[in-house]
Amino acid sequence: MGLSLQKGQALSLKKTDGAALTRVRMGLGWDTAAPVKRGLFGMKKAADIDLDASAIFFGKDGKALDVVFFNQLASKDGSAQHAGDNLTGEGDGDDEVIHVDLGKVSPAVEQIVFVISSYSRQTFDQVENAFCRLVDDSTAGSPEVARFQLTDAGTHTAMIMAKVSREGSGWSFKAIGERANGRTAMDLVAPAANAL
Hints:
This is Stress protein. Pfam families: TerD. It comes from Arthrobacter alpinus. InterPro entries: Stress/Tellurium_Resist, TerD. By secondary structure, the protein is mainly beta. The protein has a single domain, classed as sav2460 like domains (Lipoxygenase-1, Sandwich), CATH 2.60.60. It is built from 1 helix and 14 strands; from the N terminus they run ββββββββββββββα. The strands form 3 sheets. The protein has a 6-stranded mixed sheet, with no helix packed on it. A hairpin with a 2-residue loop joins strand 13 and strand 14. 39% of the residues are buried.
């Protein structure tokens, strides 16, 4: 289990030996808090909630340079790869994953902001057990580095989740947790820029 972060907390992305992390994975998980509905033959079925994890790449001037989301699964510089869209949040663990090879991130990119949006426009009142976590894929066993529990229920449809920023020759991670509204990552470019 990684370090449990609260909103606004940050940490340097370094291994225990002081070396910088080179490959990380941002995982997003969630469950539905919506009332159970009746499925086929009257069987109970939870309502599906289609949350989307996305990554927005920003340059030093705060201008968005690239976006990785369900409709563009890889970054233009080849550093980030979205593992695919999960339409329901069903199952344990990470429901959506974005892999980032920090060594391949374009020098023009200063910060990567991770966001969540509700494509089905359901609000966070209908979501529970939402979390994001950062995993070190450059170390054997892929240990979890940090976890941020997203407990902020409300009528918003998106959240500015966290960011990874250049820090000296390495990178740092910060939990943000700011409410926003939007259906896709494109709707969240401006709110994400406010979190830089």
